[in-house]
Amino acid sequence: MPPDGLYTCRLPNCGQQVQGTKTEVDKHLRDVHQLSKHGNVVCLWIDESDEEEEEENMLCGDKLQNQSLAKHICERHMRSLAVDCELCNNRQARIDNMPRHLKSCKVFHQCSPYLQSQIWSFLLPNKQFPGLDSYRENNRQRTE
Ligand SMILES: [Zn+2]
Ligand SMILES: [Zn+2]
Ligand SMILES: [Zn+2]
């Protein structure tokens, strides 16, 4: 994850910098790509390969509902929601999985209950995990 949390939009004719949160990507898709709320869409995101040959670039082509495109882009293309557990280095596909992961994380369970509660409250509000903003963002949306 880039330090400023910005990702390059790789949809055709774009290339703008977008923050890797679902909310920002969603806004970008609506403002710049005129994505409507309903209907279906084919994801035209082009994943750049590390190779120098241009033909290695892969057009996504996934068929999605309009409203799940932002999430798809965050997870699949920006990988902005992926996060490593700092205790056991287990990669979680999404920061949302983190609370559930902690419950089954072996390292976490070796800690005393006091330490566990410290970790719980320390890790989440202190940006220990990349993608935490997305986590907060998504949680806020859920509780609204
Ligand atoms: Zn764009
Ligand atoms: Zn895609
Ligand atoms: Zn863990």
Protein architecture, described:
With 144 residues, the protein is an alpha+beta fold. The chain folds into two domains: 6-77, no CATH class; 83-141, no CATH class. It is built from six helices and eight strands, in the order E-E-H-E-E-E-E-H-E-E-H-H-H-H. It has helices at 22-31, 69-78, 98-104, 106-110, 113-123, 132-143; strands at residues 6-8, 17-19, 40-42, 46-47, 58-59, 63-65, 83-84, 91-92. The chain has a two-stranded antiparallel sheet with strand order 1-2. Strands 3-6 form a two-stranded antiparallel ribbon. Residues 9, 11, 14, 16, 28, 32-33 line the site of one zinc ion (ZN).
Please describe the topology of this protein.
Elements: E1 6-8, E2 17-19, H1 22-31, E3 40-42, E4 46-47, E5 58-59, E6 63-65, H2 69-78, E7 83-84, E8 91-92, H3 98-104, H4 106-110, H5 113-123, H6 132-143
Antiparallel strand pairs: 1-2, 3-6, 4-5, 7-8
The chain binds zinc ion (3 copies).
